[in-house]
Amino acid sequence: MKSDILTIKKFHEGLTNKVFSAREALAEFYKIIDAKDGEIGAYLSTDRDASQTQAEEIDRMVNRGEKLSALAGIPLAIKDNIMVKGQPCTASSKLLEKYKAIYDATVIKKLRSEGSIFIGKTNMDEFAMGSSTETSAFKITKNPRDLTKVPGGSSGGSAAAVAGGMAVAALGSDTGGSIREPADFCGIVGLKPTYGAVSRYGLIPMSSSLDQIGPLTNTVEDAAIVFRAIAGEDPRDSTSASVIYGEELTNPKVEHMREMTIGLPKEYFISGIDKGVQANIAAVIADFKGLRVRFKEISLPHTKYALSTYYIIMAAEASSNLARLEGIRYARVPEAENAVDLMDRYVKNRSHGFGAEVKRRIILGTFVLSSGHYDAYYAKAQKVRALIRRDFDEAFKDVDVILTPVSPTPPFKIGEKMNNPLTMYLSDIFTMTANLAGLPALAMPPNFQLIGKPFHEADILGLGQYFERIRR
Ligand code: GLN
Predict the structure, then answer these.
(1) Is 174 in the pocket of ligand 1 (CB under 6 A)?
(2) How many whole angstroms from 183 Cα to the centroid of ligand 1?
(3) Which of 144, 115, 134 lies closest to 56 in space, CA to CA?
(4) Atom of ligand 1 nearest to the CA of 435
(5) How far apart, in whole angstroms, are the C-alpha atoms of residue 265 and residue 244?
(6) How confident is the model at residue 2 (pLDDT cuts 50, 70, 90)?
(7) Catalytic positions, please?
(8) Long-range contacts: 138-142, Cβ < 8 Å, 24+?
(9) 404 phi and psi, to 5 degrees?
(10) Cα–ligand 1 centroid distance for 230 (angstroms)
(11) How far apart are the C-alpha atoms of 198 and 82, rounded to whole Å?
(12) Distance 128 CA to ligand 1 centre (A)
């Protein structure tokens, strides 16, 4: 891991020691965005006036000698499906091209109260459906580490903004891997919290039993700092849990890490994984062994059914969530303006507003929920989901944390998988199980994922920080 990167901690030190002001830092970030983002395409919009006002307020606090929170003045990039009051919120869909958020998502409200600065909204796959950010209705995002490659998806803009030095950290959402896969492709860190750990109020929903908001950052410590700030119960999201996270997230105890046993599920170490990814994971395991962490082979026997289960449940919920976009309550596309009646308006709005991948999933989801097919597909998928969850419960009786690859492949070429949805869906093979089981999962370089017990983010973040220190 690079040591010259700007972390939340270094930024905070620079700001409190008056090495730079919040305004100077912000201007610097906008300079980098102006120089690089024409090529990379991480941002869909920026809000320079609001950011400037936020930065001025932080500088006044510094001048008054007030104590700053760890996140004060930090420029953050926000995925374009999370509401930031006054800024566009398009979910990269033509349907919402003109939509502006009229309130702050709970995560934004929390970060705003810490003094974070929301510099812009990032490109994504349309309604978070995809693994490459190529289904965006607006533009392609390139991987800052290799401009011929995709940045991953669906939070590809957020990952590219952080990896390209255009934000200190970012927020994304993860339904089947959308934080972790782009973090992996761009060589940064991504955390999908436990289901219920972070409020989704103000997130444009994709699949409500799977979605979570989480951070994309340069270091595991930064991920822990952002996660702690956004976690917590919210009366506006009935699935949010009343767990309180403390110091243990950013101050892991070495003795505790050494007592851990890491499980290696044999179903995740299959042939077909890219050789480079395999070699990286082998080196990670060797390094952990050097730290005296124990390993144990485990089995998650229902893994082979997980991807089909995910695509049925995800599509079913997505089709029902997207039903609200009928072109009346929210924005509408120009093609629907001359509609002759209500049905015509619905049809025109949805036909012209949604892209091909979104339509594919609405059709699939409507099909698996339709009478006559419900039992065969949706109800069965729910039963298999319970078995997948049970596999993890059993495994966690023997081990504390599970280690797997993040993605079976390194970043692929732009355009390579767009004509073949099935190969694109395979990108999620190692990530979507944590969503089905509701577990926290951390993706970090090089190419590995740590899955923890529910609400045990401290275990995976602790091991991640421990590892980060020896690799630096
Ligand atoms: N790539 C996965 C999909 O297309 C995951 C999406 C996500 O996590 N939002 O469904």
Answers:
(1) yes
(2) 13
(3) 115
(4) 8
(5) 30
(6) very low
(7) 79, 154, 178
(8) 138/44, 138/90, 138/92, 138/97, 139/41, 139/44, 140/41, 140/414, 141/40, 141/41, 141/42, 142/39, 142/40, 142/41, 142/414
(9) -145, 170
(10) 22
(11) 13
(12) 6
Q: Closest Cα to atom 5, ligand 1: which residue?
A: 176
Q: Is the CB of 358 under 6 A from ligand 1?
A: no
- For the chain, the structural domain boundaries read 8-255+430-471
The whole-angstrom separation of Cα 309 and Cα 383 is 9
Instruction: Say if residue 402's pLDDT is above 50.
Output: yes
Pocket mutation for ligand 1, best pick of 171, 432, 435, 449 (most atoms within 8 Å of C-beta): 432
Which pLDDT tens digit goes with each residue over 38-62? 999 999 999 999 999 999 999 999 9
In short, whether 131's Cβ falls inside 6 Å of ligand 1 is yes
Q: How far away, in angstroms, is 119 Cα from ligand 1 center?
A: 25
Q: Is 206 in the pocket of ligand 1 (CB under 6 A)?
A: yes
205 lines ligand 1 (CB under 6 A): no
261-265 and 401-405: which strand pairing?
parallel
Residue type present at position 471: R
Is the domain spanning 8-255+430-471 CATH 3.90.1300.10? The answer is yes
pLDDT tens for 171-188 read 999 999 999 999 999 999
The pLDDT of 110-122, averaged and rounded, is 98
What's the rounded Cα separation, in Å, for the pair 72 and 78?
16
Nearest CA to ligand 1 atom 10: 129
Calculate mean pLDDT across residues 212-229: 98
**130 Cα: distance to centroid of ligand 1 (angstroms):** 5
- Specify the length of the chain in residues: 472
Q: How confident is the model at residue 394 (pLDDT cuts 50, 70, 90)?
A: very high
Q: Name the band, by pLDDT with cuts 50, 70 and 90, for residue 197.
A: very high
Please state the atom number of ligand 1 nearest to the C-alpha of residue 153: 1
The response to whether residue 130 sits with its C-beta less than 6 Å from ligand 1 reads yes
Q: What is the pLDDT of residue 4?
A: 58
For the segment 235-260, the average pLDDT, to the nearest whole number, is: 93
Q: What's the gap in Å between 126 CA and the centre of ligand 1?
A: 10
Q: Is 176 in the pocket of ligand 1 (CB under 6 A)?
A: yes
